[in-house]
Every structure is written in structure tokens, then in C-alpha cells.
Model the fold of this input.
Amino acid sequence: MSNAQIEIQLIASLVAIACAIPGTFLVLRKMAMISDAISHSILPGIVIGFMFIHGSFSFVDNITFLSSFKQFLITYGLESPFIILLAAFSGVITVVLVEYIQKTGLVKEDTAIGLVFPALFSIGVILIAKNANDVHLDVDAVLLGELAFAPFDRLIIDGTDIGPKALWIIGVILIITITLLIAFFKELKLSTFDKGLAASLGFSPVVIHYGLMSVSSITTVGAFDAVGAILVVALMIAPAASAYLLTTDLKKMLLLSVVFGVLSAISGYWFARFLDASISGSITTMLGFLFLLVYLFAPSKGIIAVMYREKQQRTEVSLLTFLLHLKNHDDESERHVNHLNEHINWQKVRSKTVLELALKNNMIVIDNKIVSLTPKGDEFTTQAIDYIITNEDAQIEDMKDDFFLFRG
Amino acid sequence: MKQKIAVQVDDLTVAYNYKPVLWDIDLEIPEGVLMAIVGPNGAGKSTLIKSILGILKPIAGSVTIYGKSYKKQRSLVAYVPQKGSVDWDFPTTALDVVTMGTYGSLGWIKRPRQKQKKAALEALEKVGMLAFKSRQISQLSGGQQQRIFLARALVQDASIYFMDEPFQGVDATTEIAIINILKELRKAGKTVIVVHHDLQTVPEYFDWVTFLNVKKIATGPVKDIFNDDNLTKTYGINYKVSIQE
Done:
């Protein structure tokens, strides 16, 4: 691998990690669409910052304060942090506007989101179009990003090349994100799970909410350069959504999101090389593919597991019906195997499945085509019926391991 | 006997979008009572609790806990929100939810340690849920979830407990288990305030009651004021409840 290849994969991986962390909390807070809004509405912030630095605003030079501020930024090489903060600020403004419109009670949250971000995004688009000659920004790059060019834009300090600028930007953002996550993990978890309790304990949910929104905005700006406005959303939401299906532990969910993000970033890069296509597009394809796999094969929440469980539950209900029938009828004619088909009105296949399941669990014995309950089968039936009538969980704890029926 | 006042509410008015939900509420809750707040849907019962706890901002009035503002007395108060107010699919365990009750005493940034975990385990045992400590919370029944919430409040070791409909959607066994714990709290000198729906059980469970319907109708000992007159005033229809002696 060449240096540039390693650098691209490194940038993509760091972007993926930086997105997965706030993304996990956005998914749990059911705020996935807010990341879409933020990713679009940071555009005017970026463009205005860019134009400010690159002298597109003639009025800047006429106002002493603004022109000296600009000079200060350029002298100390703070152009990028300035643009990032300005853009993140317009991301936070989006959230404020959405909440404000929503609070009027006239429209719902999704409508409010749909109103705010296109408006802000379009301001950015118009600004770019009006200044296309002065500014090195185009709408394609904004939407899709261009990771392949990232290694060409180097950060040079005192004449020494210390790596691609994008790597430094996302690296710093990632360090900030991880520090905040470690420091405020408890507060984030509490206010995400139970806002009311958080407020009553003195952890202001509003402060935590805007903290998370600010981090999400800054991360989005940092990732924006590399993957563009549309794909940032995928990096925030898809890894977290996949992880959500696999674990019931918040820390593991965060860790899995990060792993999924990095996996998609690296496999996406090689997929793009193989196809000779857009890197960001390929990374997103990988994210989608990964989610599909998890969605299908996740051990308990996956679609296949769910279907299997439902089928098992159906069989177990039949088993219970059959056992109850045996318990209620002592008469031999009622307990004949053929009677199952005739009287309980089951198909042969189903009767066979139920009989086999009961035999396997030593719940019945079949002697000369006459079915009888074993003591174990008798006890099981009593317990199960008891549970169904009283709905008391405690008694059936040990049965949950063997039977899906009792797992709720 | 002059009792200490645990919670004092003065001229409290709360509005959602300029529509008053609570109108000029004056309320004194004496220390050591087990009090039900009753009233029809939309009477502002949950709103009253949330305003006392500073979760909602009133447009007028003030609340004091043992004579000081809630912010200063936070550690004296525990809160059990409505079960439906949280997402039970959240990736966490019963023990972890109960441990959240210790966060208030920890303050910002500090993490729960062995001491907090021990307290959480004890609270779980008290509500009979120790066996379920590692269970993911969505795998618990409605009654078990409510017990977890109760344990989370117990772990706060407060003087005043606010509970928003703790009996909603729980089975009879859990209801009895919960009320027994509440009665124990009262015996220990704690003040317990419960938003309650089932009027039939008020005389059996509680010794103090507040009738609420946007305005405060009445507040006092159950044996003195839990009568058809107040019920009719609160619910607007001719209400008859047989009070068992």
C-alpha cells in the first residue's frame, strides 16, 4: 500500500469512529433524522466561513474589527477551526429552529425538520453558486465529499509536512468526542434513558441535549470534507442501528458501532478501488450491506431468529394444547394416536411434530398407539397452565431456557 | 400535634401553551404521610409532581421542600416517573437502571463504584428482584419493571418519595408488594406522595389524600375528607364510593 492509501483508510476509519459515537446516542434518542438535518444545514456555515477567509465579502475589509479578526485567524493558521466552529454553530441553530417550530404545536417534529434544513442548505447552495469563481467549493463535493483527494491537502508547519489536514482535523475532533464520552457517559446514559429522572436529580437534560448536538455538529463538519453531507448520516446511523440489533448493553453497543464503522470504512475503500468508483459511495454501500446481514442473522432480534421463534412458539402452543387434552381425558380412546388427527383436528405433519417434541422432552410415553403423560409431562402441564392463568413469572423462570413460549 | 411540613406549594400555576393545567395551587404536605393525589384525566396530577421536582417550569408560584427550594434539597427527594415515560428497549440491565438512582448523590462526572452497586443490589433485594439483576429491561414483565423503578427510588435513600402511577399495568401481587414497601417507608418516617387512579383502594392504602382537578379541591386525612362530596366536586359527576371501615 502506498502512503496515500494508508492515509485515506486512516481518515475514513477515524471519521467512522467519530460518527459512530454520537450516532449511537442519536439512535437511542430516536433522533436519527436530526443528523440528516445537521449534515445539510452546516453548509451555509462552511460557505460563509470560507468566503470570510478568502475575501469574498468586500465589507469585511471596511470594518476594522472584522478585518483584524480575519488577519488574526490567518496569521495563527486558525482558518479550519474557525470554519468548523461556524459550521457547527449553524448545525446547532438547526436544532434550535426545529425545536422552536415544533414547540408551537402547529407541526410535528419530522415536518419541522423537513422545513428547516432544506432552507438552510439552499442558502449554502445559492452562496456557492453566486461565488463559484472565488470559492473552491462545488455542490457535488458538498454532497458526496472526495476522500481520494484528502491526502493532497497537507498540513505544513514551519516547512515540515506533518500529514494530511483532514487527518488532523478529524483526529482532534475524535479526541474531544472520546474525552467527553468518557467524562459524561453516566449523564448521557441517564438522560437518554430517563429525561425526567435526570432533571429531578439535577442533570439538566437541556444541557446534555445541546452538548450532544454540538458534538454531533462538530463531528459532522469534520466528516463532511471526507464523505459529504449525505453519507455522514449513514456513518452516524447505520453502525449504531446494526449494533442495536446485536446487544443489550450500551457499552457493547458503542463498541460494536465503532467496529462496524471501521469495518465499513476499510472494506468500502477496497471495494471502491476494485470498482474504481467513489470511496464514500462504497463505504455507504458496505454500511448498508452490513446492516442487512445483521438484520437477517442477528441471534435474537434478527428477522430469521424472529421467524424461527414464532414457528417454535406455534409448535409449543400445540404441544401444550395436546398435553392439556391428555391431562383432561383419561379415557383410552381419547388418547389414541389417530385421535389426534381426527378429534383435535390437526394435520398429520403437525401431529407428528408435536408428538416428537413431547417424546423428546420425556413428557409422554406411547404404548401400543395409546399416549400417556409421564410425571414430568404432568408437572409441566400444571405449571404452564398455572402460569397462563396467574401470569406470575417467578414459577416459570427455569422453563424459559427450554421453551420459547415463556420468553415473552 | 403540629407536624412538620415536608412539601409546601404556594400559588402554583402551570400552563402548556398558555392553557393553565394547574391553577393557583396551595398545598401543604405534612411529614410522614402516605398521600394519594386523585383526580380525573388531565387534572394535572403528573404536572403537579413534575412542577414540584423542577422538571416543568411554572408560570407563577413557588415550591419549598422542608422550607428550602427544591434545588437545595434535591438529595432529600426521590422520583418514580410513569413507567410508560421511558423506552424499555434501551440496552441496559435491571441492576444498571437501579444504579441510576445513585447518580444524584454522585454528581457530575463521578462514576458509580462498589458502594453504589452494593446499594443498588440491596434495593433490588428489597423489591424481590435480585434474581433478575442481569436481565435486560425489555425482558421484564410490566410489574417487574415497576419494581425496578421502585428500587431505583429506594436506592436514593430520600426523605420524600414522589411516584407517578406506580400501580399502572401491574398485577395484583406486585401491587400488594409495592404498597407494602410504601407503608414501610411511611413507618420509617418518610413522606410518600403517589398519583393514584383506583379510588376504591384509597382508604385502604393511604392516610392522606389530595383531590385535584386543575384547581385543588381538598387535601387532608383520608378519614376526614374522602367522601362523596369531594369526589363529586373533583370528578364532576355524582360519585359514590363505598368506604370500607
